[in-house]
UniProtKB/TrEMBL annotation:
Keyword set, alphabetical order: Membrane, Transmembrane, Transmembrane helix
Transmembrane segments: 81-103, 115-135, 219-238, 244-264
Protein's name according to its UniProt entry: Uncharacterized protein
Keyword Transmembrane helix: yes
Length: 418
């Protein structure tokens, strides 16, 4: 589920004007289907684990873009929307007689159909849902493949692939596969030239055609539901039906419409997860080379050297790929004790059976930004003297940055990247 990232004019290293740059695995719009696709996987592309890694990262990106584009065309085709609409109609035709029959038997003011009509509706309902379950198997796999190929770019083995092309080849920031992940771009582009330095704009500027199609589907569902409610209201008014019929129709339509909305929300949550993952990568790998250039704030020079250490509670997260350095801390709750003008940080686990660690922290990359609500951003990294990036989360990220500044540890936060 790759993105095409919009970069504002001031962030461009060359001519003025906004541009659109690759970010993540951008699906190919009209990529030809590989010749052996139908023979090995039917009309579905293979899973990333079933495809051996090619020689270079550029080759892998071209492959991933092709497979992701094909999976998304299968998953977002008009046939699926038409099949979903047909399911709603079949479900209404099949379930409404049975619901009216039961309502009439329990004394509700509605005219119930005959038992034969209710039985016929039940058969139609069963056939419709069976056909839907059989037909949507390909969509289930296509959705799984979309997630797998979108997340595959964060695999350590993929990120470790060698650079493709000639060493002296001039690279285009807008189209070069090496620019789609800041870890890959670290040795190629200067920080000022990277298309993802504008983190505040990037928070709201991620766009891609797939997310647009998903949003269009959501608006389609909304308009269809609104139109259905209007039609029900008009039918009640014109036919002078009682108040039970709209309730029955709403209950009958709840399973297919609720299921469609559940799948839609699930897709939006995954798109949000991808945006969070890419924000995390951008903050980590773009902030790292900026640490040597961030001078400690000398505004508190009058503070006494023997001042009491500051303690901040954090949660150490599992190592994030690609894993760096040699220090490994067990995930869990820890307390960071930072002393004035000392980069030696003591970490004490909340678990009494755990052992504390004294680590030399050379920098803090913080996702906290004053423009966010309360500065609440989950990801922060303690950069140790051996190059290890220890990911942590903190409920008070601004306090964490202030404590690091108290210890004269260089801090790179989101607002430092803009």
């Amino acid at each position: 589920m790759g993105y095409v990232h919009r970069t504002s004019a001031w962030a461009r290293p060359h001519a003025a004007g906004e541009r659109r740059t690759f970010w993540g695995v951008v699906p190919a719009l009209a990529a030809p289907r590989p010749r052996d696709l139908s023979r090995r996987h039917g009309d579905q592309p293979p899973h990333p684990r079933d495809v051996p890694l090619p020689a270079t990262f550029a080759d892998w990106y071209a492959q991933a873009s092709t497979y992701l584009g094909h999976a998304e065309r299968l998953d977002l085709g008009l046939s699926r929307l038409a099949a979903g609409g047909a399911l709603v109609v079949v479900h209404l035709v099949g379930a409404l007689p049975g619901a009216a029959y039961l309502a009439s038997r329990i004394g509700l003011p509605v005219e119930g159909p005959s038992s034969g009509t209710a039985l016929t509706g039940t058969v139609v309902l069963a056939v419709g849902w069976t056909a839907w379950a059989w037909y949507r198997r390909r969509w289930t796999r296509a959705w799984d493949l979309r997630k797998a190929w979108s997340l595959a770019i964060h695999d350590e083995a993929v990120l470790a692939l060698p650079v493709g092309g000639d060493v002296g080849e001039e690279r285009d920031l807008d189209t070069d596969p090496e620019s789609v992940h800041p870890y890959r771009a670290a040795g190629i582009f200067e920080v000022a030239e990277r298309p993802f330095v504008d983190t505040v704009y990037a928070r709201y500027g991620h766009t891609d055609r797939v997310r647009g199609q998903e949003a269009l589907r959501g608006w389609t569902y909304s308009f269809l539901l609104l139109g259905l409610l209007v039609l029900v209201a008009l039918s009640v008014r014109l036919q002078r039906a009682g108040g039970t019929l709209p309730l029955l129709v709403s209950l009958v339509l709840l399973p297919p419409v609720g299921g469609a909305w559940y799948r839609y929300v699930r897709r939006m949550r995954f798109a949000h997860r991808m945006a969070q993952t890419e924000t995390r990568d951008r903050q980590r790998w773009v902030g790292l080379p900026l640490l040597p250039h961030v001078a400690a704030d000398a505004a508190d020079a009058a503070r006494a050297p023997d001042e009491e250490p500051l303690a901040v509670k954090v949660r150490v997260l599992p190592p994030q790929p690609p894993v760096t350095g040699s220090t490994v801390l067990p995930p869990g709750r820890w307390t960071l004790s930072l002393s004035y003008d000392s980069r030696l940080v003591r970490l004490t686990p909340s678990d009494p059976s755990g052992s504390r660690h004294d680590l030399v922290v050379t920098g803090l990359i913080s996702g906290a930004h004053p423009g966010l609500v309360g500065g609440r951003t989950r990801w922060h990294w303690l950069v140790l003297d051996d190059g290890t990036h220890v990911p942590v989360s903190c409920r008070q990220p601004l306090a964490l940055a202030a404590a690091a500044d108290f210890a004269r540890i260089p801090v790179v936060s989101s607002n430092s990247l803009t």
